[in-house]
Each structure stands twice: as structure tokens, then as C-alpha cells.
């Protein structure tokens, strides 16, 4: 399990999902495109506004290859009004 850090906040995320999230963030920010990323915690959801000046860090325990089909799908979700929603493995 890896960890997504946004400033002082953090989210536990499966390594494969975290690699996809990192690829989405890198692609979106390379185009100076901000978006909403949310993490579901069952009954609650934490959302983060991803933008070029955001303090982000991705700690991946085991690097994985990114499936291009999944990357395209996640990029499409990131471009929607609701943004991208991830499933959190462990809360902050």
C-alpha cells in the first residue's frame, strides 16, 4: 500500500491505483489543468483540489506499470465536474 500526500493530509491507496493517480496528476498538471480528486471512505468522502502549486507527494511501496486503458479512463473522469474518485485503503 502506498500513500498520497496533499500538504499535511494523506490517503492510503493501493500501489496500482496510486501509480495511476500519479500518472493522471502528471498528465493533467503538465497541461496546467486543475481537477478534483476524491477518496471514498465508505460513508464519507475527502476531496482535494489538484492544481499546479499544490504540495503533492506519492509514496509507492512497489512500482507497477500503468495500464494505458485505465489511464485514459481515469483522465476522462478527471475532466468531469465531479472529478476523479479513488477508494481509500486507510484514512489519515
Topology:
Blueprint: E1 2-6, E2 9-13, H1 15-30, E3 35-41, E4 44-50, E5 56-59, H2 68-78, E6 84-87
Parallel strand pairs: 3-6
Antiparallel strand pairs: 1-2, 1-5, 3-4
Helix pairs in contact: 1-2
End-to-end Cα distance: 14 Å
> Numbering strands along the chain, what is their spatial order in the largest sheet?
2-1-5
Please tell me what the overall shape is.
globular
Radius of gyration: 12 Å
**Helix share, percent:** 25-40%
Précis, in short:
By secondary structure, this protein is α+β, with helices and mostly antiparallel strands. 29% of the residues lie in helices and 35% in strands.
Walk me through the structure.
With 92 residues, this protein is of the alpha+beta class. The protein has 2 helices and 6 strands; from the N terminus they run E-E-H-E-E-E-H-E. The strands form 2 sheets. Strands 2-1-5 form a 3-stranded antiparallel β-sheet. The chain has a 3-stranded mixed β-sheet with strand order 4-3-6. Helix 1 crosses helix 2. The longest helix is centred in the N-terminal third of the chain and has 16 residues.
Amino acid at each position: 500500500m502506498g500513500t498520497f500526500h496533499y500538504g499535511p493530509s494523506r490517503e492510503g491507496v493501493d500501489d496500482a491505483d496510486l501509480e495511476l493517480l500519479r500518472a493522471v496528476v502528471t498528465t493533467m498538471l503538465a497541461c496546467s489543468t486543475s481537477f478534483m480528486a476524491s477518496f471514498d471512505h465508505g460513508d464519507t468522502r475527502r476531496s482535494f483540489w489538484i492544481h499546479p502549486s499544490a504540495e503533492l507527494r506519492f509514496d509507492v511501496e512497489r512500482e507497477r506499470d500503468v495500464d494505458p486503458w485505465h489511464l485514459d479512463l481515469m483522465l476522462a473522469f478527471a475532466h468531469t465536474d465531479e472529478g476523479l474518485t479513488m477508494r481509500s485503503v486507510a484514512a489519515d
